[in-house]
Structure formats: C-alpha cells, structure tokens
Write a structure and sequence with these properties.
- By secondary structure, this protein is mainly α.
- It is flat.
- The chain contains 4 helices and no strands.
- The protein is about 85% helix and about 0% strand.
- Helix 1 runs antiparallel to helix 2 and helix 3 runs antiparallel to helix 4.
- The two termini are about 35 Å apart.
- The protein has 2 domains: about 70 residues; about 70 residues, no CATH class.
C-alpha cells in the first residue's frame, strides 16, 4: 500500500471512531439537553464534511490524479485567509453582541467557551464554504 491509501484508510477509521463514540455517548447520556444535541449535530456536520473530502480524494486517486497540486494548495491558502479573517471578526462580533445584549436588555454576560465555540465554528464553516466555492469556480 502506498502512503495515499494509508492516509485514506486512517481518515475512514477516524470518522468511524467518532461516529461510534458519539453513538455510545448519545445512548448512555439519558435525556439530552439542547447544548448536547447541538454538540452532536456539529460533530456530525464535521464528520459529513470529512466523508465528502475522503470520497473526493478517493476519486482522484482512482483516476490517477495527484491528491494535491499547485491549484489545490492555492485554494487552501485562499480559503484559509478568508477563514482567518472570519475568525477575527466573529470574535469581535460575538463580544460586541454580548456587550450590547448585556447592557441594553439585561442578559447575562456571554461565557468565554461560547465565544471560542462561535469563533471555531464560524472559521471552519467559512473555510469549507470558501474552499468549495473557489473549487467550483475554478480559481
């Protein structure tokens, strides 16, 4: 087996391990609250994105195409730049919204873990969307 096939097999193994772990977590958790359901939904979205990437790479390997060329590196860098900008502005925006809600409507302050979660989710979503958008457009 070559290195590309081993990486794909490892990726599939990680995806299966995450799916089984989340399944057993959900089965043994009892009644799930909204935060726990949201966490499980986020994990499954990430798993589905990983499965799509693995399927795409497997198709490239079967066709004999390189898994990463200059175009793919450029797309990743460009999408990474957009994700980086989105992470900065989502951190600033989350804090501004938290301050506004706290001062104007009397909401409790936003906890730091929610800010971190928002930054990670927004930057990851922007990266995937930008990467797929640039790839479709052929940039």
């Amino acid at each position: 087996m070559n290195e590309k096939n081993l990486i794909l097999i490892a990726g599939i193994g990680v995806v299966l391990a995450v799916v089984f772990t989340m399944f057993f977590y959900a089965m043994n958790a009892g009644t799930l609250e909204i935060q726990e359901m949201a966490m499980i939904a986020i994990v499954f979205i990430i798993v589905l994105a990983a499965l799509w990437l693995i399927k795409d790479k497997m198709g490239d390997i079967r066709k004999g195409l390189p898994t990463k060329d200059e175009r793919e590196r450029g797309l990743s860098q460009k999408a990474g730049y957009y994700a980086w900008m989105a992470s900065i502005w989502s951190a600033i925006g989350t804090m501004w919204i938290g301050i506004f809600l706290e001062e104007e409507f009397g909401f409790p302050p936003i906890k730091a873990n929610y800010v971190v979660a928002a930054v990670v989710l927004v930057s990851g979503l922007v990266f995937f969307l930008a990467y797929f958008w640039f790839r479709r457009r052929g940039e």
